[in-house]
Specification:
Largest sheet: 5 strands, parallel
Strand order of the largest sheet: 1-2-3-4-5
Strand content: 5-15%
Order of helices and strands: HHHHEHEHEHEHE
Number of strands: 5
Distance between the termini: 33 Å
Length: about 170
Amino acid sequence: MYNEQFVNVLIGCIMSHIVIGTLANRQIIKLLHMNRICNLFGIKYPIIQGGMVWCSGWRLASAVSNAGGLGLIGAGSMHPETLREHIRKCRAATHHSFGVNIPLMYPQIEEIMQIVVDEGVRIVFTSAGNPTTWTAWLKQHGITVVHVVSSSRFAMKAEAAGVDAIVAEGF
């Protein structure tokens, strides 16, 4: 019905200064719910909070999720038991989707990944490493995997690894 570029332009317009209220604006809001990202993550709006290392704990992640976006807990600065605590507190604070951002170069990566599985996290964003190392294992546990890349070359590698989506960042 609408092509992806059209929807992306509409999203940009909505996010900057359009006041919701008229029938036309209500129709545009409905388009927000008709995109792959919302469907993939089970969220209301295509807004994903960054997994910012020292800032993204359970309070921020649950607030973003409760507002209709996807909140992420940033595991990069957390000891394994601290991550477990944040996942449990986030789950208690929201009934909506949330995820965990995990740098693959984390020193205790095996323990972190096991905690994510044990705690029933459904969405994991990986970064800073090779996605082929953990993607298949996470997907075997029913987890949606997104990998952060800095170039089109790494995006193609992430796609070959089987990730569900990518985040393109950098210059």
